Amino acid sequence: MLRSGTLVVWTVLLVPSLALATSFTGALSWDADEDELVAANNWAGTGTLITYDVEEMASSDTWYYRYTLTVDSAQGSGISNFVLELSDNVTSGDILSARPDDPAEVGTIASNPGNPMPEAMYGAKWEDFDEDEVSETLVVEFELARMPVWGDFSAKGGPNSTVWNAGFTKLDTDPGNPVDNPGVTGHIVVPDSVYVPEPATMAFLMLGVPALFRRRRG
């Protein structure tokens, strides 16, 4: 069982291509200290948890991203929207094979009463789920030709229940550490502005060039 706040990194050497397939798995959960997740109203309970699974897809030169958000079900407040941070050169056309649906919006997502979060964020927003899809668990998955970095998310449900990662604060700066750094807390892994490199370059990166993993927002 995956412990909250834990990052697991798997690197597999593929033969005969000698390409390195890498995946990252981690989780953040709510507790009274709120050092991993900040939650309000009905979601401020120990049942609130987000997990992420990110895997390099060598066959398609993309990365597969999967996020599972589970909120405390004691009061039965379903999830109505989910916002994931992206670098500002990602467009809706870059996001492939999205489920349960394509994002309703890609761009600067405002912070307002209908979508309360610490500040505006450039990202993808999923919302307007079918009635039978509104529940205490939401799975969002897609493919994108962008490498992973540390970033933020936010979600809202009724009545005025919210949750986001503890590292998402007003005027925050996301960690520049490589995503295989287990010392980063309060953030999740999200897509960067850096495109997936050719296999030879990818192998070089995995041998120890972390600078390219840092978020570029230009």
Any overview of this molecule?
The protein is mostly beta strands. It has one domain (7-213). The protein is built from one helix and 14 strands. The strands form three sheets. A six-stranded antiparallel β-sheet has the order 1-2-4-5-10-7, covered by helices on one side. It has a six-stranded antiparallel β-sheet with strand order 3-13-12-6-9-8, with no helix packed on it. The protein has a two-stranded antiparallel ribbon with strand order 11-14. The protein is globular.
Estimated structural class: mainly beta
How many strand segments?
14
The number of helices is 1
Q: How would the global form be characterised?
A: globular
Number of domains: 1
Q: Residue ranges: pLDDT <50 for 5 or more in a row?
A: 9-19, 204-218
Range of helix content: under 10%
Order of helices and strands: EEEEEEEEEEEEEEH
For the record, give the distance between the C-alpha atoms at the N and C termini, rounded to a whole number. 39 Å
Content of β-strand = 35-45%
User: Could you tell me the mean pLDDT?
Assistant: 81
